[in-house]
Amino acid sequence: MRQGYWIILDELNLASTEILEAVIRVLDDNRELFIPETQAIVKAHPNFMLFATQNPPGVYGGRKVLSRAFKNRFIKLHFFEIPREELEVILEKLLFRLGNRYTWADKKLLEDPKYDWNQHLIEEGYLVLSSKVRSDLELQIIAEALYNNFKKRIVLSKSFNIDSDLKEESAVLRDIIRELRNYRDRADIVWTRIMTRMAVLTAKALQFNEPVLLVGPTGFGKTTVCQLLAEIHNVKLRILNCHMHTEGADFLGGLRPCR
């Protein structure tokens, strides 16, 4: 802010009231931020710019309705769901880039005449894209776009089944499925298709060092999947339960006055 950097406040309507009150001062004409802990006032650089994004309240859980006075400090731009025809164009562009990524990564990958790279690409593409959508209709659009580009169908029974025959395994997920197969007799895990899918997708994200947000009801196995993968990779896992009174100091540490 002092240096004139730009800032995005993502998911603004999830922020606490204290945060929103601080943002109001930044949006006023004086463009300053008061830090109560240090009693300091931070003046914004002339080049400083603030952006904010949010999901519609009511449609997504936990989002609050911002006051009209607060929203009037912004130029509000409303966008709605992407039309089907535009979504298909986006998918085709993404798939083209995905295909080029594999071509540029290693020329030796194309030297095996027996390997079905079209099948490989649609499985990778489906894993990347299907985890980002929210409805069955969008999943169908993804499957159709993949088929239109590669003339191959995704076979989900091969992707999310740890009991499948070795010959029927997905080449993209073979290593992950074989690792999970070593734990299929654990008494504390029931390997339903949903549980397997969650474990496979989470493990796939870990291969690329991507952060994962698991969304689902209580008892769905979200924490268990993380504990299992930590055990597989021999990594120490710490669990922090968040609640309405969780503060930044709970994650980062902080200074407490001596009494």
From TrEMBL:
- Per the UniProt entry, what is one GO biological process? ribosomal large subunit assembly
One Pfam family hit:
AAA_5
Key word tRNA-binding present in the record? no
| Any GO CC annotation of this UniProt entry | preribosome, large subunit precursor
GO molecular function annotation: ATP binding; ATP hydrolysis activity
What keywords are annotated for this sequence in UniProt? ATP-binding, Nucleotide-binding
By its UniProt entry, which InterPro entries does this protein fall under? Answer: ATPase_dyneun-rel_AAA, P-loop_NTPase
User: Which superkingdom heads the taxonomic lineage of this protein's source?
Assistant: Eukaryota
Provide the ATPase dynein-related AAA domain boundaries. 1-74, 211-256
PANTHER family, per database record: MIDASIN, MIDASIN-RELATED
Q: What is this protein called?
A: ATPase dynein-related AAA domain-containing protein
| Protein source organism | Glossina palpalis gambiensis
Q: What is the lineage of its organism?
A: Eukaryota, Metazoa, Ecdysozoa, Arthropoda, Hexapoda
